[in-house]
Amino acid sequence: MTERPLVRFLDRTTPPHILTLVLMAGLGAMNMSAFLPSLPDMTTYFETRYDVIQLSVSGYLAVTALLQLVIGPVSDRFGRRNVMLTCQSIFIIATLGCIFAPTVEIFLFFRMMQAAVAAGLVLSRAIVRDMVPQNEAASMIGYVTMGMALVPMIAPMIGGALHQAFGWHSVFWFLTSGGVLVMALCWLDQGETAKGGGIGFREQVKDYPELFTSRRFWGYVLSAAFASGAFFAFLGGGPYVATVEFGLSSFWAGVCFGAPAVGYALGNYISGRFSMRFGVNWMIRTGALIGFLGLSVSLVLTLIGLSSPVLFFGFCTFVGLGNGMVIPNASAGMLSVRPHLAGTASGLGSAFMIGGGAALSAFAGAAIQGGGGSVTLLFIMVSTLLLGLVAILYVMWREKELERSG
């Protein structure tokens, strides 16, 4: 495709409008974080332990990681529109199942089904690649990401306010309404953009050994996985710290959960402004160092008794700032290691990043049950960020070795 196709809003014979793409991606981001302020009360409602109800975060991330691998090839074969509408239907049914679930086991089953909405995150980028030439795709994806970046800031606030006013079920009614509206918009506006020619899942798997043997690829993957892992650990333990340790209301807990997103937006801006000038490795190292040092200061202050919700959540902004610098540049690094395997590298990298986040989220949720509260959570996050820093330092060392060997 050599020129931008005609786009008419609410015309399903043309590609979707950028507003539709933003809402497709944004609903997935909203579903991930809107109910976080409700987790402690949901623990009481279902008469279970916090580490069990926290599986609604870590298990959801694990299923999302698997979907990262298969949604692209499936939509190549069956069409972006058909896959998106199917996944939206599953999401709506699953969200209603969460509302009426009588036990925590049934709730968690439907919560895993909700991960179908992650198709919006994957397909919005795939549709952009279908619509515009390669040199324009990055810019357009940037607009989609920019709109999506606002969602994690406001979703916990909305969820916390709804919970405080009407209880936790209202958050899932809100998500159901959002699912219905986005599905209707996709039905009316999302024309098919897949032209065929994409590789299938079996062909994608054949490329795995070449990537798995690249130490630089693993270095970039691990730097991104550990950086995002610190944030997902925050998602796993933050609700408990906010409500149990600091005694925040659902609304104020929701406000605090937006802190990393503020930093992430700033980090993304810095990446867009300076990555070309300083290079991806420098940006990753700097972002990892910022996150590590910021959280280390927070840990020291907490250990000497200067613990408060303002300090704890304020310093968590550094996690988002570091991630905003690490993740875009590490993603670019993954794709550059084997340019002819860029699509496979993207799917594998995302799967490892989110899958690792699922494991760290579950670990953090379980670990704080043993005592320590914010100290335990901060220690997990600091350790994770340090490992991410080590990973990118290894990549930089490896590149120097390759240069010396010619």
* Relevant CATH superfamily of the largest domain: MFS general substrate transporter like domains
- Report the total helices: 20
Please write the string of helix (H) and strand (E) elements.
Answer: HHHHHHHHHHHHHHHHHHHH
- What CATH first level of the largest domain would be assigned? Mainly Alpha
Residues in β-strands, percent:
under 5%
Low-confidence stretches: none
Derived structural class: mainly alpha
Q: Number of DSSP strands? A: 0
CATH fold-level topology of the largest domain: Growth Hormone, Chain: A
* Termini separation: 37 Å
What's the domain count? 2
Range of helix content: over 70%
Major beta sheet summary:
none
At CATH's second level, what is the architecture of the largest domain?
Answer: Up-down Bundle
From the alpha carbons, calculate the radius of gyration and give it in angstroms. 21 Å
Shape: globular
The mean pLDDT is 84
